[in-house]
Amino acid sequence: MGKVIAIFNQKGGVGKTTTNVNLSACIAEKGKKVCVIDIDPQGNTTSGLGVDKNTLENTIYDIIIGETNIKEAILPTEYENLHLIPSSVQLAGAEIELTGMKNREIKLRKAIDEIRADYDYIFIDCPPSLGLLTINSLAAVDSVLIPIQCEYYALEGVSQLMNTIQLIKKNLNPSLEIQGVVLSMFDGRTNLSIQVVDEVKNYFRGKVYTTIIPRNVRLAEAPSFGQPIIYYDARSKGAEAYTELAEEFLDLEEDVI
Ligand code: ADP
Ligand code: MG
């Protein structure tokens, strides 16, 4: 059975999508079967994996709101072992449409149950909000992977994030765990970045990955070419870091490569 993981932080711009695209690609490159679900209406994971958002037949919207079978929305990507369930702009209205629906919090969980066995890992890219799409994600997963940006307000919002996880555990998903915390956009030249690393490690005790993702311009460029960093520029610092993170992730899972 595959493990299902949400990349979650209700703050925008902290590196969720970048981590989703690149960690997934690195894990797939190591031979694991990976499916990425893009549940953010912005669809940055979808375009970041080179899929044109304008030509899609079925998206995660059709699965959550409609009656479409999840298997009909799975797309191959250009990369081996890496599949995608794309997002759609229609998702922006899904929060409202879901409000009146029965079982509105567990629609995604039910859908994912049908493909769990087909993958080693399923990663969900959450939107930057605490609405029903995020609740659906957190209700569907085994664990959350939390990216935190190395900036002045890094820990702002973290207590709200932890409260949300506690609420979901209590009401919808008792076995929900924290997979790990990834520090992103680290700039070793600033004392601030170094200070943030200490603060986050202190707060999350032992849950923070040793691998830290540096600020790297190649990581910011790669999405406009629709390529994960390991294919866009394999020798960049960003590619090195996400490869290392994938290795650390699999190591902690005791998943042999
Ligand atoms: P989120 O999904 O949390 O909103 P993104 O992954 O989209 O965050 O990142 C926000 C912006 O920062 C994007 O433009 C992305 O390309 C850029 N970015 C993310 N991580 C890095 C990094 N390590 N180095 C440089 N730019 C980054
Ligand atoms: Mg995003």
From TrEMBL:
<dbReference type="InterPro" id="IPR025669">
    <property type="entry name" value="AAA_dom"/>
</dbReference>
<dbReference type="InterPro" id="IPR050678">
    <property type="entry name" value="DNA_Partitioning_ATPase"/>
</dbReference>
<protein>
    <recommendedName>
        <fullName>Sporulation initiation inhibitor protein Soj</fullName>
    </recommendedName>
</protein>
<dbReference type="Pfam" id="PF13614">
    <property type="entry name" value="AAA_31"/>
</dbReference>
<dbReference type="InterPro" id="IPR027417">
    <property type="entry name" value="P-loop_NTPase"/>
</dbReference>
<feature type="domain" description="AAA">
    <location>
        <begin position="3"/>
        <end position="178"/>
    </location>
</feature>
<comment type="similarity">
    <text>Belongs to the ParA family.</text>
</comment>
<comment type="subunit">
    <text>Dimerizes in the presence of ATP but not ADP; ATP-binding is required for double-stranded (ds)DNA-binding. Interacts with DnaA.</text>
</comment>
